[in-house]
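seq/struct pair 1
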Amino acid sequence: MSEVIVLDKRIRDFPILEEAQDDDVLLASTDTDTYALRVKAFNERYAAGEQARMDAEVKRATAEQNRETSENSRVETEGKRDDAELQRQENEKARQSAETAREEAETDREQKHTAAMGEAAEATQQATDAAAMAKELAEHPDDPRNGTWWRWDLEQHAYVDTGQRAVLNYDKVYPSVEAMEGDADNQPPSTTAIISTDVNIEDNAKLYVKRTDGTWGFIADLSGFPGVGIESVKQTAGDHTPGTTDTYTIKLTDERQIEVPVYNGSNGQDGEVSIDQLTAAVETARSRSWEVVVPAEGWIESAATWGDLEAKWETTIEVPDMTDIPDIIKIDFVDGSRQANGRWTWVACDVGSVTLYSTHNTPPESEFTTRITEVR
C-alpha cells in the first residue's frame, strides 16, 4: 500500500482547521495517486489514531515507568543482595575468628589444666617428701659425739660428723695475750685459744676465738670465782640448857652469814648437829640455781654466733631471781621432753633472763625444764 500523506497545504487553505465543514474535502496524494477525503472522515480517523497514539504513549510511558521502577527495585534488591552477601562474608569471617579463638582458648585451657595437674602432683609429692624428711630429721636430732656435733644425712640415712664443736674446748695455749696476738697470722679463723699463766695474773684462763677479720675475740674468763671459806663461827643464841636449841652463825669470807641450829641434849644425850648439816649450809651459801621452764612456743629465728657455732633459733626466758650474771654455770635436765632438751646448743645469762640458742634446722617442739646452777 502506498503511504498516505496529509498535505498541510490543503488543510491550510482553510482559515483554521476547526472551521472546515464535515462535508468539505481534503485532498491527499502520494507519489503516484491523489485522494479526496472528507473532513469529517479525516477528523474521525485522525482523532481515533491520535487517541490510540496517546493511549499507546500513555501505556508506553506507564510501562517505561514500571520498567524503571522495576529496574530501580532490581538494582536496589541487587544492592541489598550484595550488602547481604558482604554481611554474610563478614559474619563468616567473624564466625571463623570466633571459632579459632575458641579452639585456641580450649587448647590453652587443656595445656593449663595439664600443667596444673602436673604441678599439683609435683607439689603433692614434694609435700610428701618434705613431710617424710621432716619426720626423719625429727627422729634423728643432732648428736654430740667425741666433742663434735653429728648430724643426720638425708641422702646417706646415717649420722655424719659436721666438725662443729659440741663441747667447750680450745685449739691453742698461749702464755700471754701478747704471745697470742703475735701468732694471729698463723692461725685460721674459728681457732680457739686459752691463756695459761700464773693464777694471780688477770689474763689467766681467758678464752678467745680467731675472727674472720684476723683479730682475736674474747669469749669468756674460765678462771671462776675466788674460793669461799669460813671466817668465823659464833654462838648467837641459846645458853646450852639441856633440851633447848642454840644458834651458831657462820660468817663466810665473802661477808655472807649462815645460821645453824644445834640441839642441846638432855640426860646425858649428845647434841644433834652433823657434818652433813654444816656442809649443806655452806654449799647453799656458795652456789645458786634456777629452774627454767622452756615452752615450745617463743622460739624465733636467730643469727647469733659463738665461736664457729651459728645459731638458727633462739628463745629468751624471764628469770626474775637471777639478780646478777653468773660467770660459770652447769646445766642439768629436770623434766619434760629429753629430745627437746637435746635440741639447744648454748645458753647466755643476763640479769633477769636467760637466752637459749639452737643450731638445729628446726627449734624444739616440746616443753622441757632445765636447771642452771652457778658454779663457785
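seq/struct pair 2
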Amino acid sequence: MQSKIPNGSWPVLFTPFDTSKEIDFEALDEELDFYLKTHQAGLFANALSGEVFNLSKEECVVIASRLVSRSGGRLPILSSGNFGDTLEEQADSMKAVRDTGVAAVVILLSALPRPDSLVEQILELVDKVDAPLGLYECPVPEHRLLDSDQVREIASTGRFVFMKETSRSVGTYTEKMRAAEGTNMKVYQANLRCSPGSLENGSPGVCGIFSNFCPEWTARLCEIGSTPSEERDALFRALVAFHDVAIKHGYPSSGKYYLTKRGLSIQPISRTHHTHEFGDADCAFIDKFLEETDLATPSLGTDELKSLLDKLGTAPIFD
C-alpha cells in the first residue's frame, strides 16, 4: 500500500517563462518558496495551469526534479507523467517522472491513447509502472470522466493516492469520494463553486486554479472544512472574484500576473492561453480590480461580488 498524502489545499503550479518563453528556473524556485510559506498541503506540477501540453517530456521531468530537490521533503510534489502516443511510451515517461522523487505520478485521462477503455488503460499503466499514482480528469483536449464504480475499481488496486475530480457536480464528486473510501486514494475537488458543498460532505481538500494565486485563502477554506460560517462565506466570495477575473482576462498569464503583483518575479508570459492572449487591457483591468479589493482580507460583500460578476459575464470553466 502507498502512503497517504495530506488533506488541504493543493495549488496547480504555474510554469514560469522568460521573454524567450523558456522555463525561468529562478522564478520556479521563488514560486515554490512562496507556496511553502502559505500552509499548502502540496503542489501539483505539470498540469493544465502549468501548460503541460506545451511542455516537452524532458521539460516536465526537469521541473519535477527541480521542485522535489528544492522542497527537500517540506512539501509533497505531484507531477503529471503519461506523455507519449502509446501506453509503452507513457509508461516510460511515467518512470522518468517517478525517478525524480515525486510523491505520485499523475495520469492525465485526456492524454491516454484511446478515448474508451479508460480503466483498462489505467490498469495497464499500473502494471507497467511501480510508483504511487494519481488521476486527473483533465478537461483538455477532451474531457474524460470516470464514474464512481470505475473509481472504486481503480482505487482498490492500492496504488493510487490522489485524484483531481472535475465533474463540476457536488453530487457526482461525492459519489467518487465515497467510492474511494477505505483506500489510500483521496479525491480532491477541482471546481471552486463546488468546493463549499464538497467540504461539507467530507472532502479532503481542493486542487484548483483558485489555489494558485490566493493560497492562504484556500488553505483556510479547507481548515474550516464542513462548518458553514460567515468567514467561510467571505473567503468563498473573494475566491470567486479573483478566479473569475483571472479566467476572463487571459489565463494562465493573468494568474501569473496576480503573483507578480504579490511581489514574485514570475512574468505574465505563457506558451498558451485558455480564452485569449493576455494584453494591456487585461493588465489594466486586474490593476484596477486589485486597487479596489483587499488581498490581505477577504472582505468582498455579496452585492459587490454580484456587480463584478455582472460586469465580467459568464466565465468559462477550466479545471
